[in-house]
Amino acid sequence: MATNGDHASTKPPPSPSPLRNAKFFQANMRILVTGGAGFIGSHLVDRLMENEKNEVIVADNYFTGSKDNLKKWIGHPRFELIRHDVTEPLLVEVDQIYHLACPASPIFYKYNPVKTIKTNVIGTLNMLGLAKRVGARILLTSTSEVYGDPLIHPQVESYWGNVNPIGVRSCYDEGKRVAETLMFDYHRQHGIEIRIARIFNTYGPRMNIDDGRVVSNFIAQAIRNDPLTVQSPGTQTRSFCYVSDMVDGLIRLMEGDNTGPINIGNPGEFTMIELAENVKELINPKVEIKMVENTPDDPRQRKPDISKAKELLGWEPKVKLRDGLPLMEDDFRTRLGVPRN
Ligand SMILES: NC(=O)c1ccc[n+]([C@@H]2O[C@H](COP(=O)([O-])OP(=O)(O)OC[C@H]3O[C@@H](n4cnc5c(N)ncnc54)[C@H](O)[C@@H]3O)[C@@H](O)[C@H]2O)c1
Ligand SMILES: O=c1ccn([C@@H]2O[C@H](COP(=O)(O)OP(=O)(O)O[C@H]3OC[C@@H](O)[C@H](O)[C@H]3O)[C@@H](O)[C@H]2O)c(=O)[nH]1
């Protein structure tokens, strides 16, 4: 059984469907991806669908996701797409649940904070209830935001974080912290097989063009020849992981033996001024960089310690920022209808 030090479960996990071991049943792995119409979720679905033994069900309410991200799978016999809000219970028979449903960009998660909390708390409770009923393994995409404005650097999983419980970001970061608590309580109390990934900033093709996150903003601005908006002071840091590396890490975590939480991210750390300079150099050397006001509680530094992911999952990211940015530029140019000169 998967363990995480002193977090060992008190109960054996519930039995999976009897069909899993049936002699004449062609046992496919049935996988639910909540939030599968979003940025990371749709790339995860692409990877899962490559395996002919997988059947994939996506449940999404399309708040920040889109059917367009999944258009190549719609109508495929091993694929099903359900319009569903995870704050409502869902009855499906599955073996694994990748639970991603939740707006991720600060402008979207702050837009309706009460709904963001409900998605994180009630949504995660519903998915854990489903996992309990059908004996499925469940993976939660938690976040580096559980560390808040971190007082230790780089962030290790054992750090408990420095989070404002009443701030404008709390619906998301406290929401994810409760979601992690629920995961471990279901694991200890009901024997549910859990996996928790703490994801650090991820970027790549299919991010919403007006998503509001920094990499998508800068790339869209550079292509449109609008000034790159660095939020002050610009010395705050982030570590950016390309989406193919992220998906690889999530699948390894799901398939491995460790509950987590495990940091998954790229330790390459950049200030926002450095990121803007890289985007300017690679995409549009003539574009202006302008300093704008920041939002409250913006974490000043963020960099994952990925020793655990390396040791327990044999995972580390392969794509450097300067190689990933041009791949994202191609996708943004196609969608914006602005070819390279
Ligand atoms: N991208 C990152 O940098 C990052 C970093 C840390 C954690 N994460 C986590 O990874 C997950 C995916 O992030 P993303 O970047 O793909 O974001 P995204 O906004 O592109 O995708 C989220 C998906 O969840 C769906 N959704 C939102 N609320 C829902 C609800 N109540 N019911 C059903 N579906 C709902 C959205 O429509 C969307 O398709 C999220 O849980 C996020 O918190 C992402
Ligand atoms: O146009 C912009 C947008 C953002 N920024 C800055 O860029 C940094 C990163 O901001 P983003 O909005 O991309 O994302 P954040 O790092 O704040 O949160 C992110 O990381 C953790 C995930 O869980 C969240 O889902 C994700 O949005 C911040 O310091 C912000 O001030 C800019 O300088 N300019």
TrEMBL record:
**This protein's UniProt keywords:** Cytoplasm, Decarboxylase, Lyase, NAD
GO CC terms: cytoplasm
Q: Could you say which cofactors this protein requires?
A: NAD(+)
Any GO BP: D-xylose metabolic process
**Major localization class:** cytoplasm
Q: NAD(P)-binding domain: which residues?
A: 32-326
Q: In which pathway does it act?
A: Nucleotide-sugar biosynthesis; UDP-alpha-D-xylose biosynthesis; UDP-alpha-D-xylose from UDP-alpha-D-glucuronate: step 1/1
Keyword flag Zinc: no
* GO MF annotations in UniProt: NAD+ binding; UDP-glucuronate decarboxylase activity
Q: Name one Pfam family in it.
A: GDP_Man_Dehyd
Q: Which InterPro entries match?
A: NAD(P)-bd_dom, NAD(P)-bd_dom_sf, UXS-like
Entry EC no(s): 4.1.1.35
- Enzyme class, first EC level, given as a word: lyase
Record localization: Cytoplasm
Cross-referenced Gene3D superfamilies: NAD(P)-binding Rossmann-like Domain
What reaction does this catalyse? UDP-alpha-D-glucuronate + H(+) = UDP-alpha-D-xylose + CO2
Q: State the family it belongs to.
A: Belongs to the NAD(P)-dependent epimerase/dehydratase family. UDP-glucuronic acid decarboxylase subfamily.
What does the protein in this record do? Catalyzes the NAD-dependent decarboxylation of UDP-glucuronic acid to UDP-xylose. Necessary for the biosynthesis of the core tetrasaccharide in glycosaminoglycan biosynthesis.
Protein name (database record): UDP-glucuronate decarboxylase
What organism is recorded for this protein?
A: Rubus argutus
